[in-house]
């Protein structure tokens, strides 16, 4: 598990110095016996203009089904059955064309988080958030650029025209886009009003450490994840807590000691069931029981053998995907009679830790320390195949977004942010094979 000392001294990958930023230590649990340390950039030079955009093309020869037989990750979690098709003739979809666009906001700084809202792509490079037009890759705005003391932005979420950013300095900041497409700071959570409402009463304080107390509405360590469902905001932190906020007045409603170690991920389903993933190797499920107003623990999901880094749900919330340092993606399915999730199997193929997951329709995208993005397609009987392996990043893939094209139903736009300082946007065409006689080579051909 991640040690307390590491969490206090590392911002996932960075530590600050007077002259700027440098790369710090990697998760100890994400290194396995056959993995070497990740080669982070030491002092890279400024290789391009700020916000520059380039287009690149490269040929991908790694077919997913071929790598399944030799990849060392097949040995991870041997007690969990594989859900993958191993033979190309079972493919139901093909990836016919991919176009890659590259954006480098600050080439010397890693991308810590990306998110999509409408026609805007939000990309955090350390503490700065860069906003691009998704169609043209034009840089529209940069905000929080003066807030270097806030630390890196670790998560971005949206609600009712507002933008919420989670920061290393334990705060959640709220922004709003103006008519000129500039972003105006509104407030930080917890708000001043919320603090004033509670600071007088001793019962509102909790012990942070010996002789140090804080309000229970405050996070005590980096806020690592945000999720929003209807009018509620859910935040998780390395301080091991899950906090629930009311979006309308930004008031903290509840704080839960959710895990025994740092919490790395949170996601929420349409019925307001909340899932948290932690360095304690557990996923916990939270919901409001019948007749109750506050969240309580419903189930604890234990199968991963190392820190859980990423969570994603399918569209109806019946399937949960979890990615961890053990290099496997576990698939959990909800039982009909309860909120409990049971593991059905694992998706294997990545050679190193899973850092991010996102789901669109019946497609799952995963990003890894092995510098690749994989696209997974659900088939019959709960089986999956790996449609494609997207290559090109030079460092671990830290964040992913995926959006279906509004005009072309068979097109998915995937954006990936990496520690190499690059955001790659992939336009992926998905189609069924034209005939049963289509050869596997034709099905998996790439044109970039």
UniProtKB/TrEMBL annotation:
InterPro entries linked to this entry: JINGUBANG-like, WD40/YVTN_repeat-like_dom_sf, WD40_PAC1, WD40_repeat_dom_sf, WD40_rpt
Disordered: region residues: 38-64
Pfam short name (any one): WD40
Keyword RNA-binding belongs to the record: no
SUPFAM superfamilies, alphabetized: WD40 repeat-like (SSF50978)
Gene3D superfamilies in UniProt: YVTN repeat-like/Quinoprotein amine dehydrogenase
WD repeats: 256-296, 301-342, 347-377
Low complexity: bias regions: 45-64
UniProt keyword Repeat present: yes
Keywords in alphabetical order: Repeat, WD repeat
PANTHER family documented for this protein: F-BOX AND WD40 DOMAIN PROTEIN (PTHR22844), F21J9.19 (PTHR22844:SF199)
Name this polypeptide is given: Anaphase-promoting complex subunit 4 WD40 domain-containing protein
Organism ancestry: Eukaryota, Viridiplantae, Streptophyta, Embryophyta, Tracheophyta
């Amino acid at each position: 598990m991640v040690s307390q000392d590491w969490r206090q001294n590392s911002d996932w990958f960075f530590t600050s110095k007077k002259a700027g930023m440098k790369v710090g230590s990697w998760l100890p649990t994400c290194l396995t016996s056959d993995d070497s340390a990740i080669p982070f950039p030491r002092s890279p030079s400024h290789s391009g203009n700020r916000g520059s955009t380039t287009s690149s093309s490269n040929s991908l020869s790694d077919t997913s089904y071929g790598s399944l037989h030799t990849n060392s990750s097949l040995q991870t979690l041997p007690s969990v059955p594989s859900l993958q098709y191993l033979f190309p003739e079972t493919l139901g979809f093909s990836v016919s064309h991919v176009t890659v666009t590259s954006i480098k906001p600050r080439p010397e700084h890693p991308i810590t988080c990306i998110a999509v809202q409408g026609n805007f792509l939000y990309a955090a490079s350390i503490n700065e958030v860069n906003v691009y037009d998704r169609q043209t890759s034009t840089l529209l705005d940069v905000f929080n650029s003066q807030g270097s003391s806030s630390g890196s932005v670790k998560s971005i979420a949206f609600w009712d025209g507002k933008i919420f950013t989670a920061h290393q300095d334990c705060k959640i900041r709220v922004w709003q886009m103006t008519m000129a497409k500039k972003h105006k700071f509104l407030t930080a959570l917890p708000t001043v009003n919320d603090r004033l409402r509670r600071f007088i009463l001793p019962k509102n304080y909790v012990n942070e450490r010996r002789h140090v107390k804080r309000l229970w509405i405050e996070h005590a360590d980096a806020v690592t994840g945000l999720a929003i469902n209807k009018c509620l905001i859910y935040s998780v932190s390395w301080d091991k807590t899950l906090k629930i906020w009311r979006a309308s007045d930004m008031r903290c409603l509840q704080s839960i000691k959710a895990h025994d170690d740092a919490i790395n991920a949170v996601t929420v389903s349409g019925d307001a069931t909340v899932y948290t993933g932690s360095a304690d190797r557990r996923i916990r499920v939270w919901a409001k029981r019948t007749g109750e107003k506050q969240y309580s623990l419903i189930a604890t999901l234990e199968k991963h053998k190392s820190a859980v880094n990423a969570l994603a749900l399918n569209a109806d919330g019946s399937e949960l995907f979890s990615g961890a340092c053990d290099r496997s993606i576990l698939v959990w399915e909800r039982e009909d009679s309860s909120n409990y999730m049971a593991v059905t199997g694992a998706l294997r193929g990545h050679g190193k830790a899973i850092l991010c997951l996102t789901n669109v329709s019946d497609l799952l995208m995963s990003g890894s320390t092995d510098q690749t993005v994989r696209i997974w397609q659900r088939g019959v009987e709960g089986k999956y195949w790996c449609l494609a392996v997207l290559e090109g990043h030079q460092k671990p893939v830290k964040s992913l977004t995926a959006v279906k094209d509004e005009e072309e139903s068979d097109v998915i736009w995937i954006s990936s942010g990496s520690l190499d300082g690059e955001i790659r946007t992939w336009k992926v065409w998905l189609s069924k094979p034209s005939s049963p006689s289509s050869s596997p080579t034709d099905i998996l051909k790439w044109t970039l």
